[in-house]
Design brief:
This protein is of the alpha/beta class. Helix content is about 35%, strand content about 15%. It has a five-stranded mixed sheet with strand order 1-2-6-3-7, with helices on one face. A two-stranded antiparallel ribbon has the order 4-5. Strand 1 and strand 2 form a beta hairpin. The longest helix is centred in the C-terminal third of the chain and has 18 residues. It is globular, with a radius of gyration of 17 Å. The two termini are about 25 Å apart.
């Protein structure tokens, strides 16, 4: 429909900025037990969500914090809650298959398993063919949906018809041990008409 067309047009016109933001986010280590890396992620995500027009804050838990954001639409009758996670699985750095390590994003002109070649200086490009792939730890699981959601919200601008709530979990890859208690603690912020769990498809 019209919303889908608006998103596609926006993405086409802003690919360089979207890929740049994605690359920055992927460059921050996000293993759940690395508390310094987790805090760097939360700081980046707070600023990122605010840049995209949401009011953002940290919700402290017994473990890694949740990053929470909201955008209210005057007169909206429903609220959509998006759950995505920002932590990643542990990684065996010495055995990572690309130079630079798991948190050094690399663009390839095809799938790595199909022999896709590295694209140098990709950050300066404005167009990225559909078969190109950006490789780094947590690229698809689960940082891509965060960037995609922000781009979608930007593209829809004033045409949003629902309130938007976003919660980013920092312990999903560890089984979200702090989430149940946090849901009870922050029930009012997490109340919504519908929950969408963000997951990239590759």
């Amino acid at each position: 429909g019209q919303d889908r067309a608006a998103v596609q047009q926006y993405v086409t016109a802003h690919r360089r900025q979207i890929v740049g933001e994605f690359t920055e986010l992927l460059s921050i280590p996000n293993v759940g037990t690395d508390h310094a890396g987790i805090r760097r992620n939360t700081e980046f995500l707070l600023a990122m969500l605010q840049r995209h027009g949401l009011k953002a804050e940290l919700l402290e838990t017994a473990g890694n914090p949740l990053v929470y954001a909201e955008k209210y639409v005057p007169g909206a009758a429903r609220t959509l809650l998006f759950y995505i996670h920002y932590d990643g699985q542990p990684v065996d750095v010495p055995n990572w298959k690309q130079e630079g390590g798991p948190f050094h994003p690399v663009m390839r002109d095809g799938r790595m398993e199909d022999g896709g070649k590295i694209v140098t200086n990709f950050a300066s490009l404005n167009n990225f063919p559909d078969d190109w792939r950006l490789y780094a730890r947590s690229a698809s699981d689960d940082k891509a949906p965060i960037v995609a959601l922000c781009a979608a919200l930007d593209s829809l601008g004033g045409s949003l018809r629902s309130n938007i709530h976003v919660v980013l979990d920092g312990e999903e890859e560890m089984g979200s041990p702090s989430l149940t208690a946090a849901i009870a603690r922050y029930r009012d912020k997490l109340r919504a008409s519908m929950l969408q769990i963000g997951r990239a498809h590759v």
